[in-house]
Design goal:
Elements (H helix, E strand, L loop, with lengths): L1 H18 L11 E3 L4 E4 L4 E3 L8 E7 L4 H5 L1 H12 L3 E7 L6 H13 L6 E3 L5 H5 L9 E6 L3 E3 L3 E2 L6 H16 L2
Parallel strand pairs: 4-5, 5-6
Antiparallel strand pairs: 1-8, 2-3, 2-6, 4-7, 7-9
Amino acid sequence: MKKAISLFMAVVMSAALLTGCGSGETELVSKKPFPEFSEIDTEGNAITSDIFGDYDATIVNFWNNGCGTCIAEMPELEEMYQDFKKENVNLIGVGADSGESQEQLALARKILAEKGVSYRNISPDLDNDFYKEFISDITGYPTTFIVDSEGNIIGAPLIGNVKEQVESIQKRIEQIRGESVNR
């Protein structure tokens, strides 16, 4: 029993050190490549992972048609998009289930229109690696990633309403900008 408790405490302490909880430091927790993709958006236009290079940072928000929280936060995301684009920060949505059928795509388009969304939304092809090897592993919606101009995910995914995590998003964007200045 003591061994199990010691092992548990070691894991908890390691996790706390890796995440920097309470440390007040702005060091990146992790940095790993966002998967390359070549998809279409909900309007039928091609979009690839090359888009990351056009911005200092990109916020990538994964949502689905049946997620009430995802749909409810869309006006907030639109507001963020309008504010951030002035700072060379992009926002892209990924309608995770919009590529399942024409009906799902039509529903996604209707939701986006009703919520006044102007930022691009990817409609992933279920046969592509982007869906099979990345999107299908997402277990909760909304899930948001911050990606730098080199296509790297900065930090852990943000699960849940984005507005409640704006401070984390801002810190990651500042970290990205600080790194690009030091290159």
